Amino acid sequence: MTMNLPALTATPADAPIEHIRLQYANDGFLLLSGLIDEATSRSASELLLQLPGMDANSAAIAPPDLYNAQRELVEHYARQDEVLLSCFSDAFIDMTGLLVDQIDLHRPNGVQTQNLLTASTAWTQPSPHIDGIPKENRHRTFPGPYQIAFIIYLSDIECRGGGTIGWPGSQHKVRGKAQSDLLQYEYLFDLNKEVPDLDLGEPVELLPKRGDILFFQHLWVHGATFNIRPEPRLAIRPLCSCSACNARWYKRDGWSFWQP
Hints:
By secondary structure, this protein is α+β, with helices and mostly antiparallel strands. 23% of the residues lie in helices and 20% in strands. It has one domain (7-257): Sandwich (Jelly Rolls). The relative contact order is 0.23. The model has no long low-confidence stretch (mean pLDDT 96).
């Protein structure tokens, strides 16, 4: 039987900024609470539960939305509902700017949902990976297709309920591996093959509450889990259709993950 991992809950966004920046630099990720107000997160959660397929009727999901039966993952693609876009608050934009030392950030103008229904399979610890790895994208390791990425959770998550698994500080080990042979690991697809064999230390299971936001760095190692709880795990990621974002982490149909 898989043992429970150490649990990690969110750091308040009103913590000293020096502490927040140091934690993000050292660990490679940061789970923060208090950047989305209660009414907005509640309304966004209610909307997600009403979207096609969230009643476990996969036949209701039609392109461009996707259903991954292996993970019981429902993705609604390029949604532009105002209540979802409202999750990208001024506080979220300002915090992103502080973490990447960048001002005058443009706003994301779309959303991709990543909702996990109750899985029929047993919970297992996921394999570690880094993002940006599809071979067809040919994303180079340096500078990488992104400097920072995000997951906004819109439900309270319990142990084995679809919370992200993360390896604190793992980005340092991965960067060292990549720099050991810049030619061999020119592309993220090839570097990712080495990740499971690295000494990454012990992982933690993130247990966010509705409205918490995960910020994570390029090369931070994490794992996508199943949800064995009866309630759906609700989450969104920011998309953008601007030319600058599409030049970095393009997905499809004129949309990319938002990159400040």
